[in-house]
Amino acid sequence: MAMEHINITFPPDLKEALDRTAKQEKTKRSTLIQKAVKMYLRLKQRKKLNILLSEAYREMADEAKVLRDEFKAADQEHWPDVD
Predict the structure, then answer these.
(1) Mean pLDDT score of the chain, rounded to an integer?
(2) Which GO biological process entries does UniProt record here (predicted)?
(3) Which of the pair, 69 or 6, is modelled with greater confidence?
(4) What is the pLDDT of residues 36-73, one digit of tens each?
């Protein structure tokens, strides 16, 4: 895969933490940053999908209530003594 070079500025304490973690994991700084960015982007996408799913579930629940009420009215027409 082709790579592009970018410059990133970090506060000293964050750079030190990055260096320590890269050393502990026996990897390069850039590899660790790549993994972190990928994870961040995946989490953002997952949150977006969860929001969309929640909205869809709410809409389906609302539609189900409407259908329930429509069938309840139809049932009462045909079986008025049944509750």
Answers:
(1) 91
(2) regulation of DNA-templated transcription
(3) 6
(4) 999 999 999 999 999 999 999 999 998 999 888 888 87
Residues with Cβ within 8 Å of 33's Cβ and at least 6 positions away in sequence, in order, are 8, 18
Segment 1-18 shows an average pLDDT of 96
What the block records as the tokens of 10 is 């970090």
**Axis crossing angle, helix 12-24 with helix 29-78, rounded to the nearest 10:** 90
| Six-digit token string for 59 | 């809409």
Provide the token pair at 73: 């009215």
What does the alpha-carbon distance between residue 30 and residue 15 come to, in Å, rounded to a whole number?
12
Q: Give the chain's end-to-end CA distance (angstroms, integer).
A: 67
The answer to whether 47 touches 54, Cβ cutoff 8 Å, is no
What stretch of H or E contains 41? Answer: helix 29-78
